[in-house]
Design brief:
Chain lengths: 336, 321
Amino acid sequence: MKKTIALAVALSLVAGSVFASGGAESSSSAKKYRIFMNPKFTGLSYFEVCANGAKEAAKELGVDFVYTGSEQADVQLQVQSLENIVSQKPDAIIVSAIDLNAVAPPLVKAMAKGIKVISYDADTAANARDFFCNQMSYEGAARAMLDCALLNAPEGGELAFIAASPTSPNHMAHIKIMTELCQTEAKYKMFKPVSTQFAGDDEAKSIEVSINLMQAYPNLRGIISSSAVSAPAAARAIQSAGKVGKVFATGVALPSSIRSYLKDGSQKAFFIWDPAMLGYMSVYVAKASLDGTLKNVVGSKVKAGKLGEFTVGKDGEIVYGKPLIFTPQNIDEYKF
Amino acid sequence: MDAIRINVNKHRWELILLGLIAVAAAWATQLSPYYLESGQLFNSSRNFVFTGIMALGLMTVIVTGEMDLSLPSILAVCTVLLAKASAASVPLPLAVIGIFLVAACLGAVNGLLVAKMRLPALAVTLGTMGAFRGVAFIIGSEVGYTGFSDSYKYLGGTLIGETEIPLMLPVFFIVVVLFVVVLHFTTFGRRVYAIGNNANAVAYSGISVAGTKVTAYVLSALTAALGAWIFVGQYGSARGDNANGVILAVITSVVLGGVDINGGKGNVLGVLFSILFLWTLRNGMGLANIAGPIQQLIIGALLIAAVLVSNFAVSFRTSVK
C-alpha cells in the first residue's frame, strides 16, 4: 500500500512537472549576448564585488549576465561548473581560475565552439582563453606590495610570502618578482625573503600558516600575501600571537576586511585595485571580443565604458593597472 | 531461478528511486532547456563515474557493518603515484598494477585494524583518511602534475569511437554488474550480508568474520584505485588534494540507495539508482545555475527524508504484525 502511494505520488509529480508552465529560460528573440562569469568560488566578497561591477557593465551594454560558480575553492568543482556553463551555450565566459591547467580542457572545448573566453584576476593556461584581464601587471603589483611593506617597516627585515597554491599564476609571479626586486633594487634591498607558504585562499589555513611562520622565523618582520583571504588572516594571526608592532602583514585585501586593523594601528598599509572595475572592464572586453572590434594583437585598443581605453599587451593580456594603497588615513574613503 | 523473479515488495526502495529519477529528470528538463540533450547528458555523466565506483566499494564495507572514510584519500595516493609513474615513463599496465597493489595494501591496513584488532571503524578510517591524505601530499605535493602521457589519460579521457559516449561509462556499468554478481550471487557476498546481520552467528558457524571484512576493505580500496585511474584521464591532473571532501557524496549515494548504515541490508541496484538520481538532480541544478549552498540543502534534506522513510517503513512493518 505504502509503495503504491509513493509511486502514485511520483508519477503525478512527473505528469505535473512535464505539463507545468515551462519557462525557466525561453529563448529571447533579440540577439542579446549571454555572458557568464565564473569566479574561483562564490564564497568570497572580493568576487562578489567584481561581479557587481560586471553587472553594471552588462546593464550599460545591454547583455545578459549570469554569475555562477561553486561555493568552495575546489578544482574539480570549478571544472564541473565550467562544463555546466558550456552546456548552456553562452556567448562568452569570464573566469578566474583556481588552477590554470585544470580548467583548460572545458575552456578549450568552449573556444572550439566559438565561445569567447576571458580570464580575469587569475589567469588560465594561455591557450585556453582569448584575453586575460590582469588587475595589475605582475611587476606593478609586486612593487605596490613592497611599497606597502616599506610603509610598515622602512628599516627592512625578513619577509615571508603566502600564496594560494603553486598553480596560482598571479600569486607565484608576484612572489618571484618581489624576490628579484629585493635582491636587485636598492629601494627594497633591506628586505630578505625567507619563506613561501601555501594556504589555498582558506582563512583558517592562512591563520595557521602565519602562526607557524612566526614560530619558525623568530626574526620575521613581515608577511605578504597576494590573496585577499590570506593577507587579512595574517593580520589576525599577528594580533592573536601578540606580535603587533613586531611583525606586520600586508598584501592584497578588500578595505572592508582590514579596516579594523588599520584603524587600531596594528597594520599600516594594504593594497588592492577596484575589483568592481576589474569585473566591469572584463565585460567590456568580452563584448568587444564578441563584436569583433577587439583582436588579440599587441597594441589593439578597447574602450571600457567609463574606465577609458586599454591596450592589449603580450599574449592577450590587458592590464587594468590602477592600484589603490590603503592607509589609516584614507581607509574611510573606500566602502567595499 | 527464483532469484531472478523480481519480488516487488522486497525491492520497493529501488522502485521508489526509479520514480524519483523520473521526477528529477522532468524537473531538470523544466529548469533548463539545455538539460535534455544527449551530448550534455553524456558529458555530465562523467561526473558520477569515479564517485559511483567508490560508492559500490563502500557499500560492501557498510553492509558488513563497518565504515570506510579513507577511500578518497586512497584515490589521491593512487593519482599521485600514477603521476610519478607517468613522469618516469613507466608503461601503463605496470603503473596500473602498481596502484592496485598499493591500494590493496592500504585497504588491508584498514581491514586489519578494524577486523583483526577490533578497533571502531569510524575512528580507524578517520585516522587513515588523514594519514593516507598526508602520504598523498608528501608524494604529490601541492604543485600537482599535469603532464600525463596519453596512455594514462586514455581510460578517463576518451570517447568511444565517433560517439559522444565517454569510455568510462561502459566501464562503470561493467563494475556495477561485477558488484551485482559478487554481492548477490557469490558465497563471499552471502557472507558479507550475513556478517552485517549477525556477525556472532557467522563466527560460531566457523566462517572467518575478520577474513571477509578484510576482503571487503581491500575490495573497496581497489575501487578507489580504479577511480584514480579514471580521475587522471578525466581531469588530466594529479595533486595531493584530489577528491578531498568527496567522501560525503559517496556515503550519500550509498545511504540513499537503501543500504542500512548499520549493515546487513542493501542492494547494488539501489545504489546504482541512487547514483543516477543524485546525478540527475545535480546536473539539473547545475545547468539552472542554482547556488551551491541551495544544492547542498536540497540533497541534505533528501538524505534525511530517505533515512526517515526507511526507518518509518521498518517500524510500520513490525508494528502492523
